[in-house]
Amino acid sequence: MRAVRFYPGSLMPPAGFAFFQGLEEKAEEGLHLVAFAEGALPALKDAARLEARSLVLLSPLLEGSPLLRAKAEALRFALEVGGLEGFARVGRAFFFGPDTVGEEALWEAWREGLSEEGVRGFLDHLAGLGDERRWLRGFEGRVLVLAGAWDAFLLPPLSARVVDFAKGEAVRLLLEGGFLAPWEAPEEALALMEEFLSGEGFRALPGGLAL
Tens digit of pLDDT for each residue in 8-19? Predict the structure, then answer.
């Protein structure tokens, strides 16, 4: 049996995981989970229970901090004052990397995909987020963390801290982009995910780096 299960996040672009649907053909036998942002927590909770073979976490939100909560409050204020348009305008500075922050078409497409229910759910998740990395202790499969090198929201050090709790082999790789890096550099993200899910090409090194 070969299967890939996706756990979306509320701030994904409208295309969602459509770009990555071909992953199942490249994956080795077994169940593989792919999650973005707040989708990382339910994916982690399912990973051990379902005995998944591997877990891919894209810009995972698994550890709360005063700084992250302050950013969430700024976004909540923007939502209350300016609605989804206000949220999107403030979010442009937080979620996009420097190479795409000025691309109107990309930003407008992302903004059109936002819903008030989804945005409020995202902000509520952040408000209640503790240190959920502990869920990794119960999972023995491979873990890949893909994050943006220019992520002004999550910040690269926080994505690096995720692999510290992994019990099995864990790898962290950085993409050119921000919090939405998997969609800013989709071809690169897809290639890395395919190689990881196939079980080839990665050797874990200390600190979550890989060859």
Answer: 999 999 989 998
